[in-house]
Amino acid sequence: EAGVVQSPRYKIIEKKQPVAFWCNPISGHNTLYWYRQNLGQGPELLIRYENEEAVDDSQLPKDRFSAERLKGVDSTLKIQPAELGDSAVYLCASSSVEGHTEAFFGQGTRLTVV
Amino acid sequence: RKEVEQDPGPFNVPEGATVAFNCTYSNSASQSFFWYRQDCRKEPKLLMSVYSSGNEDGRFTAQLNRASQYISLLIRDSKLSDSATYLCVVNDGANNLFFGTGTRLTVIP
Question: Which of A3-7, A74-78, B12-16, B92-96 has the lowest mean pLDDT?
């Protein structure tokens, strides 16, 4: 069974440019998370989806970040415009909503804003 | 106040040593608990779930104390391959997963 797939793996952009990340969760997983991880820190939740509904986006900087999961399967996270402080690893994870199961992570997208 | 607090370490221990990591969580309604392992420049991966009665998987033992809102991970007979960052993770019961900052472990030959 395929795991969580993210693309691209790496992205280098200049500040003020837009950037988008894509995630395809494990088949059948209703819950999808986007996390941001800075060096030396644990992952911090940006947004959580249950199917196509964003049920927790309280930590998403809505002035420049947006996300969608239109069909309740794959998801995109966008930053526009990017700032230097957005440099981090963006991790996507998915889990089954049945029971309190663990989340499975993709390999992440390492973003560098220069 | 952070949802999950962890001692960031680093912990540098010799091979064969026993090492323990601790974690506290703030939400008393939290339902499930996990330890994840993260290698350098890799994604976090589940190491083990933590059950109320405590559970063991080989050299690894996890404990949960709901009254004190405290989780621990014990690693016995440390191996070089155990070197990694260990992340404490709490599900608040509403399917929100909160991560600690991680504790970095280096096992020294």
Answer: B92-96
